[in-house]
Amino acid sequence: MAAPRKYPNELRERAIRLTLDARKDPASRSGACSRIGGQLGINPETLRGWVAQAEVDTGTRVGTSTVDSLR
Question: Which pTM does this prediction carry?
Answer without folding.
Answer: 0.83
